[in-house]
Amino acid sequence: MSYMLGVDVGGTFTDFSLYNTDTKEIRNFKRSSTPDDPSRAIVSGIIQILEECGIAPDEVSFLGHGTTVATNALIEKKGARTGLITTYGFKDLMEIGNQKRPSLYNLLKDKSESLIVPGCKCEVRERIMHDGTVKLPLNEEDVRNAVSFLKEQKVDSIAVCTLFSFINPVHEKRIKEIISEEFPEAYVTISSELVNEFREYPRMSTTVLNSYLGPVMKKYVRNFENSVKEVGIDTKPYVTQSNGSIISIAETIDYPIKTAVSGPSAGAVGASYLSGLSDEHKIITFDMGGTSADISLIQNGKLQVSYDRYVEGYPARVPMIDIITVGAGGGSIAKIDEGGAMKVGPRSAGAVPGPACYMRGGQEPTVTDANIMLGKLNRHKILGGKMDVDRSLAESAIKKKLSSESGLDVIDAAAGIISVVNSNMVRAIRGVSIERGYDPREFILMAFGGAGPLHACEVAAELGISKVLLPGSPGTLCSLGLLMADTRFDLSRSRIMLANKENLKDIRRIFTDLKEEGDQLLENEGVPSDMRKYVYSLDCRYENQNYEISMEIADGQMDDKILSELIEGFHAEHNNSYGYFDRNKNIQLVNYRMGAIGIIDKPTIPGSDTLVQGDVPVTELRQVRYEGSREFVETRIIQRDSLKRGTAVEGPAIIEQMDSTCVIPPGWTAYNDRYGNLIVTHEGGEA
């Protein structure tokens, strides 16, 4: 027997997906997270699962892990003491930044807290020109003095970013060698190995972010690796990158910034896989967990990837799935603000103490407490009966913190919590759709995470979306997505030239060099040549513009046909993004990108060939209050594992399962498809 195991750490729960490669069976598990040390929940959970399933540790052939360690270190400002070495005259670049302000009309908005230790920005004399020629050789004495100073300041890591090193990295590489000689224990990031692109500020920012996270991530993944070995699992763990792929522990240590949105990206990958099974090519993903809601968009079956994201106020020039995150989860805390308005989130009760109803000492009213009061969540047990909850504690928290300050009764206050949190999520969905030129009514809303299916239909209704897809195991889709991810290295080069036939030879040469580099990286990961594939894209803009659109191309061996398709595609995408295009303008090529992908064996979710309209066993009848109504409605409670493939359930109904609860409001109908997904449509919509 051989097993694949995916582990996703959330703010409230840690999720596990176990796949038997022989029987093709997938089993899902949930354990409470341990925020003080996330690895404790992982290791104890793995031990329990292996014992419960009678699996020997050496039967685990793959272990994938989605982590929030990098994200939390940035949010909580608990990264390493970091110093900077840069070209003379440019040490204040991180403070100067660019012309983008975090709040366009607020000149008093505070800037993000500096990640560099005060006084630890060092300059060295050197200068490389825009064409890669050396104008001023590196002054090695300056470097040794800078390293000695940073060592005296007790920094843990050093970021190195010099001008035009993305064209000629010779000075940065020598600086790295000198640091190794003078201060070998320091963690070092040089920009030319991380961001091989132009624009000094994003390149320096990404380098600093990576150095800031390096020692923290190194300690965590080494502890995780050792803990896994102690359990008896011999295989080396993989960690999810922000682009939705997986990388080895060694790669994670070198480039931790690539894991900034590790956990949410795994959910998007899982959603992409399920959208292919369902033959749906336009999906808005809605991943609502205990702490936050993560929203992304799948167009033509492909996830949207951004190369220009901000992480805690700083640009990170690494590829990330374009995910918008809002502080709206089951544990989000509700309060009445100074103006008398109800606010929900972004502060969360987390795993400890958790929502008041969890009986762990929580005193603040949360979204979960509101759902229990309204009857949408089981008022006695959740997680398939494995976890007790107490409705009276939820009622007490809402009454004490909200009703006493607003004049609302407990039920209206609970309904208010749901209305506010739904509105927060609607705004986020508009951010990935309407604000980027997409009509959400043309998309299906795929809801997952422990709380996503609770809110999906009501959120969809507010957006005019008439079709919702609820996966078979929505609460653990992120951990399943870890088993669907491939290994991937994203490589890039910067060179500005026009998109014309005269430059085809130079374009092909750049992509050939990138492919050779990608092959070497895949070779280091042990990926056989017949399990490799490559994707190519170009960052394009009209001449005299300063912002680019990334366009995927069919092949790196550019020819007249591919060039023509690129030009036509760019005009169309520019029109979609900005509302206009101009065929008379020249198109510039700026960045050349290649993804070197190592394909791994993945779980398969078999579809049933037998679809029947079976009976729907009802376990109880419950009074439930839905969004937009002031009355409670008698609602059937159904266990999801009792639904046969092909069965339809008319709302109002609530479908309970171990990892989530699916709410089917009045006017909606849920259909259990051949893959076990619930396709929920509003009256007038099509299944």
Automatic annotation (TrEMBL):
Superkingdom of the source species: Bacteria
Hydantoinase A/oxoprolinase domain ranges (all copies): 203-489
Location of the Acetophenone carboxylase-like C-terminal domain: 502-675
Gene Ontology biological process terms from the UniProt entry: glutathione metabolic process
Protein name, entry field: Hydantoin utilization protein A
Source organism: Youngiibacter fragilis 232.1
Pfam short name (any one): Hydantoinase_A
GO CC terms, sorted: cytosol
Domain Hydantoinase/oxoprolinase N-terminal residues, every copy: 5-182
Molecular function terms, GO-annotated: 5-oxoprolinase (ATP-hydrolyzing) activity
